């Protein structure tokens, strides 16, 4: 018997869960369920607890999912990571190799420069006059990925595409001087995250004065926010599925 844990950071927003997380899990279940035991896991303990406390769902964390596999006699489990970066949350998964010697973990979406380059080629939307992608950002050293992502957009023809983060070093203020050149264009805000959850709805598109939409509007930009996580895009899903195939 073999097993795949489909591992997400998680979300408490069920609309984006149904749009971004469930389709990926269902794909793995339908594609590999005859050969593999398939489990879902969230690495965020806070999200997991909130969902359970509200009676929405009791989803396993990554260790609980692997413990379940061990109880079934699965000694070479696979974790399919849907994390964008190999940062703090991803390292939680890697740390489990100490307890599960046969564990295989798929690479994150942005694990190498070739993947980032491929992503940026596919994530340029001709209908956008100017795009600002909101990444999550991290205190981990892999936060530099967002700089490279921005460079790749420019290299691949997206001179009007910018990347900033809500919690990383590359903040909205970092790119404001460059955005001034597009003052006569409409800015389209998009979440560079698997789901369009709390950060997208509030920090990016919210009505509070410190949201990106409010800040840019206050500075005289025309702004539109698109609440669509990467998990809704076929090209992003396919890139994730390719990561899974690498470890099967």
UniProtKB/TrEMBL annotation:
The active site is at residue 136. One of its GO terms (biological process) is anaerobic cobalamin biosynthetic process. Gene3D superfamilies: 3.40.50.1400. The keyword Metal-binding applies. InterPro entries: Anaerobic_Co-chelatase. The keyword Transmembrane does not apply. Co(2+) binds at residues 136, 167, 199. It comes from the Bacteria. One of its GO terms (molecular function) is sirohydrochlorin cobaltochelatase activity. This is Sirohydrochlorin cobaltochelatase.
């Amino acid at each position: 018997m073999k097993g795949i844990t489909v591992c997400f950071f998680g979300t408490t927003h069920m609309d984006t869960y149904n749009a971004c997380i469930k389709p990926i899990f269902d794909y793995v279940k339908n594609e590999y369920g005859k050969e593999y035991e398939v489990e879902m896991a969230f690495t965020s303990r806070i999200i997991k607890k909130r969902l359970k406390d509200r009676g929405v769902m009791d989803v396993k964390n990554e260790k609980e999912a692997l413990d379940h596999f061990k109880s079934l006699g699965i000694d070479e489990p696979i974790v399919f990571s849907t994390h964008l970066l190999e940062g703090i949350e991803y390292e939680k998964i890697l740390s489990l190799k100490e307890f599960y010697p046969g564990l295989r973990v798929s690479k994150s979406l942005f694990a190498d420069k070739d993947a980032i380059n491929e992503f940026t080629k596919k994530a340029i939307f001709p209908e956008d006059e100017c795009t600002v992608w909101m990444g999550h950002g991290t205190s981990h050293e892999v936060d530099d990925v967002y700089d490279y992502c921005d460079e790749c957009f420019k290299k691949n023809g997206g001179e009007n595409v910018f990347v900033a983060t809500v919690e990383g070093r590359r903040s909205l203020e970092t790119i404001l001087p460059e955005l001034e050149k597009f003052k006569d264009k409409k800015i389209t805000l998009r979440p560079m995250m698997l789901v369009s959850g709390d950060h997208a709805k509030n920090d990016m598109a919210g009505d509070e004065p410190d949201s990106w939409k409010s800040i840019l509007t206050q500075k005289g930009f025309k702004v539109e926010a698109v609440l669509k996580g990467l998990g809704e895009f076929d090209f992003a899903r396919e890139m994730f599925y390719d990561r899974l195939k690498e470890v099967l």
